[in-house]
Amino acid sequence: MFTGIVEEAGLVRQIIETPGGIRLRVDSSVCGEDARIGDSIAVNGCCLTVVEIADVTTGKVLSFDLLRETWNRTNFSSVGEAAVVNLERAMAANGRVHGHFVTGHIDGTGIIDTFEKRGADWYLRVRAESDLLRYIVYKGSIAIDGISLTVAEVTDENLAVWIIPHTYEVTALRQRRAGDLVNLEADLLAKYVEKITAK
After folding, report:
1. Is the alpha carbon torsion for 68, 69, 70, 71 positive or negative?
2. Could you tell me the residue range of the domain that residue 24 belongs to?
């Protein structure tokens, strides 16, 4: 379980095909400080397991194995080497929940339709499938590339959020442009309500 508060923007060092799937290697300083094999870390909002840790002079390189299903359902297929990705360690049971409960299970991807500076802040509008948008509500929570954000607008075709300067500067959003793919995770509560009330 995560909170959607990104701890650092890591750099993709390598993406390689392996007999079992795809190996993703990411430079990390903050999340790599106390990382252990088997730890869960959200990478662009996707919960991945640390399978290897390599020490380097500037920090650590964390390795993750991706299933082909994960590769196909997330924006990792559009993330290349030297790209910046959002990293967050699993929430500590005695910690504060500053964002919202994020599972790290990506519901789907969206395409950035508009991303522009308006005043001191940034306006981000994302086009997504209707089967995902049905879980999104005005003033509700959404995780975009693992960042906990408040929904400012929602229609049948897209959702929009506002990004404060701090979030823009410390996350991978600073590399995003219109046309880019982003990972989306809707609030878990909406899915449970749908299941319970279904006839």
Report:
1. positive
2. 8-89
Token pair belonging to 149: 């954000």
Q: Give the HSE-up count for residue 182: Cα atoms under 13 Å, Cβ half-sphere.
A: 33
Report if residue 98 sits inside a domain: no
pLDDT tens across 78-135, in order? 998 999 999 999 998 777 778 888 999 999 999 999 999 999 999 999 999 999 999 9
Tell me, yes or no, whether 151 lies in a domain.
yes
Domain contains 198:
no
DSSP secondary structure string, 95-160? S--SS--B-S---EEEEEEEEEEETTEEEEEEE--HHHHTT--TT-EEEETTEEEEEEEE-SSEEE
Query: 96 in a domain, yes or no?
Result: no
Q: Mapping DSSP to helix (H, G, I), strand (E, B) and coil, where does residue 186 land?
A: strand
